[in-house]
Design goal:
about 230 residues; sialyltransferase cstii, chain A; seven-stranded parallel beta sheet; 10 helices; 7 strands; about 40% helix
């Protein structure tokens, strides 16, 4: 069911760009890019582009900043429309791989089974190695965000480079075309659910940046990590 080896082979020696849903993707003035066209060209220069959760359909007002090519979609697999439920028929021709950000174990296995029943093998799909996920969860003391998990999962594979843009650990909330929720609302939701603690993920991200030369980040994440 997992196709994990095929997925890892797909990633091998590829350059990868992960595009998150932070409003920073539209804040060119405070980025390292001169224009949105330059930012888009940087994203498009990577072999593979990764997006997250309920990004589809990609709105034109986002597309002009970050494009719409999507080779890999990391998704929490929730069937709840408020958490990113997707139309299988819509996305199957738009992505090469769908990757669950949750392992195949309760309570997530029900959502994964539901997807498998709906997709009938029409989408290449894999789930995390359960030991990798549980070790990450133990290290953090919480469940990783889909965006942070995707970073760690990609880096566990033999990729050549990873460029991260549009991930700020909810600083600024979400870009409105993705989800109409500001920073305070997003963090309040995380606190209510008690699933995702941002500080341990931010601290581990710093260690990743210091120790893995494959990782490149946009100016906004740099500022978020180093408070500049």
């Amino acid at each position: 069911m997992t196709n994990r080896k095929l997925y890892e082979e797909f990633l091998k020696e590829k350059t990868v760009c992960i595009v998150g849903p932070s409003p920073s993707i539209k804040d060119i003035a405070n980025s390292s890019f001169k224009t949105k066209q330059e930012q888009l060209a940087k994203i498009e220069s990577y072999d593979l582009i990764v997006r997250l959760n309920s990004i589809f359909p990609i709105q034109p007002s986002i597309k002009e900043y970050v494009g719409d090519r999507t080779n890999i979609l990391y998704h929490c697999m929730s069937a709840d429309p408020k958490k990113g439920h997707f139309d299988v028929n819509y996305i199957k021709d738009k992505i090469t791989w769908l990757v669950s950000s949750m392992p195949y174990k309760p309570p997530f296995s029900g959502d994964i089974d539901y997807f498998i029943a709906r997709s009938r093998g029409s989408i290449n799909f894999t789930v995390p190695d359960i030991n990798f996920f549980l070790n990450l969860e133990k290290t953090l003391g919480c469940r990783p965000n889909t965006g942070f998990f995707s970073i760690m999962d990609l880096l566990s594979c033999e990729i050549k480079e990873l460029f991260i843009i549009g991930i700020t650990f909810f600083q600024g909330g979400y870009v409105k075309e993705y989800r109409d929720m500001n920073e305070q609302q997003a963090l309040k939701l995380m606190d209510e659910h008690k699933n995702h603690k941002q500080e341990p993920q931010i601290e581990l991200m710093k260690k990743v940046l210091e120790n893995d030369s494959r990782v490149k980040i946009d100016q906004h994440l740099y500022n978020r990590q180093y408070n500049e």
